[in-house]
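Newbie here. two chains, one complex. Structure please?
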Amino acid sequence: MESLIYAVLSMGGIGLFFAVLITLANAKLKVEEDPKIELVNDLLPGANCGACGLPGCGACAELMVKGEVGLSACPVADDDSKDQIGKLLGLSHEAGEKDVAVVLCQGGLKNVSIKADYDGVKTCLGSTLVSGGERQCAYGCLGNGDCCVVCSFDAIHMGEDGLPIVDREKCTGCGKCAEVCPRDIIEMHKESHQVFVLCKNQDKGKAAKEACKVVCIGCQICVKKDESGGFTVKNFLASVDHSKYGSNPELPTDKCPTNAIVNVVRASE
Amino acid sequence: MKLKTFKHGSHPKEFKEFAEHKLLETLPIPDEVFIPVTQHIGAPCKPCVKKGDEVKTGQLIAESAGFVSSNIHASISGKVKAVAAFPHPNGSKSIMIHIVGDGNDEWIETEKVSDWEKLGKDELKKLISDAGIVGMGGAAFPTHVKLSPPKDKPIDTFIINGCECEPYLTADHRMMAEQTEKMVLGTKILMKVLDVKNGYIGIESNKPDAIEIMEKAIAGENTISVVPVQVKYPQGAEKMLIKAVVDKEVPTGGLPMDVGAVVNNVGTAIAVAEAVIEGKPVVERVVTVTGDAINEPKNVIARIGTPFSKLLEYCGGLKPDTRKVLMGGPMMGVAQYSLEVPVVKATSGILCLSTDSVPEIKEYACIMCGKCVEACPMFLLPTRLSKAVSKEKYEMAEELGIMNCIECGSCSYVCPSNLPLVHQIRIGKLKINEKNKK
């Protein structure tokens, strides 16, 4: 019985000693931190996606409070939380539209020609080192999903067809997928922009057709049919200027002979 | 006597028997050639002919664009049909000069030199540079650059690389055995340009006939000696060869000239002899067409720009179960997706492999056995490099010396888990180069 009491007393004593030590240390060595940093950090998305170019949301919050970066540093946070952060820090914030990733390629396994079997490292970057992977098109999707791996918001997935599919609801517009794509076929566009030329192929018509069924051949039909002047063709590739074209979803996408011009919202419905 | 060699390395099966004793044959002049303006390390050449021009064999068709660059000459006579992008054996599409032949193979007038020993160093170097000679072993580094070391780096050793350590390839072997005189002459010319008194010819001991022939050929010379070296991969990498022959180690990140050595391939020496004596630019090279998926393996002298398909046809065509066609050997060669790509100055061989030789492999996890570390001739840690790259820790990879990797493939070859180590390392190098450019 006696040994039990000794044990409890000695353990309790040690515990008490260290508790006092820690309390003292806490008081003595306290680092003064602006309480706003934690508040801002709570309002930021907390995904640590790295879109701001800083190591995580905490670092971004710190710089925001210090005034070294503005509210626009975080492309991911929604307007609501940006307003709250703005109030907290006395910054104004213009409500904007969020960006969404658009995959400018339709060269899935159904459409693109296959030139070889690729059995190297299963990343897009890896396949660029070996004659550009399996698919014939030298401009299009490589299909190994580097963009899907890098997404912190579960918003881009590899479809059955070997093409990444963007979930426009979940996409926060951080732009990591666009950054990582070695072929630069993912671009960030305003959510209201819906009509795109889903192709990056700059080959002449015949060579382009050999590579992929759904390819822009630079035929100029879109330029002629669209009166707003929103379409231009350069290097056998059409592109759409949304400032002229607006976001009118009624403009003809069905005039493209190869179906390369698509309304991405309607197509996903 | 124990043969000289370097530390580490691997022992892939040689497979030289396919074409080892096949005498050199000359491919008939092709109907058309596709001559890329990028066939060397350095700046791409500027084409100096246009569509519709008539050209003769040996005529300059693309000029060197800078010091590290090398002239390109027409390899057949005929008419330029196009200057446009075509598939290149390196996997990209690049600008090529498409010449349709007239079948006459009419040469430009070449200047023949009867007594080369009267020419000065700079004259010889100019002849070599004008002839568009690059390292014919496969790296295609412009030779005149190697022959112009800076003044603070005196050169005292010259080595001819006759190792041919890549399995299957036999082009250098046949050249040593059949073009011996030209090779010795080329060696002498190169030694004169560099003003070097110690010349060595390093040959792997699996080519006893070549060693014997070379020894006979240089019997009267007291500045050149033949050095038989151990059969080990990558014995033909220049840093490994220098270590084996003169026992000097090229410092990390350095070049052979840092230890006073210059290494040239057998094919380069022969091209130098032809350029100086006959005034003949690089318009053809020896290509080993080999492997278990080609009907008649051969060593063929082919014009630069000949499509691979023509060469394969000449060698009896591919067998039905062909799985893979590579340019170069199995360790460092480049897989091809089209047979319409042309022979370039760096095409030492075309390797055709059947399904049996290219088994489907499954990757397993790294078991930390350290075989890759023992195999790496550059004393790197391939497994850690590969892991650093796959986790995108490029700074760590750089600290571990990823940029010193010579991409010889020894680590991937010995890995029991079939990991694509070199491929990962190449991805890392690409990323780091991109980052450093910014």
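Moderator note: The mean pLDDT of chain B is 93. The interface with chain A takes residues 91-93, 334-338, 360-361, 420, 423-424, 426-427, 430-431 of chain B (CB under 8 Å). Thread marked as resolved.
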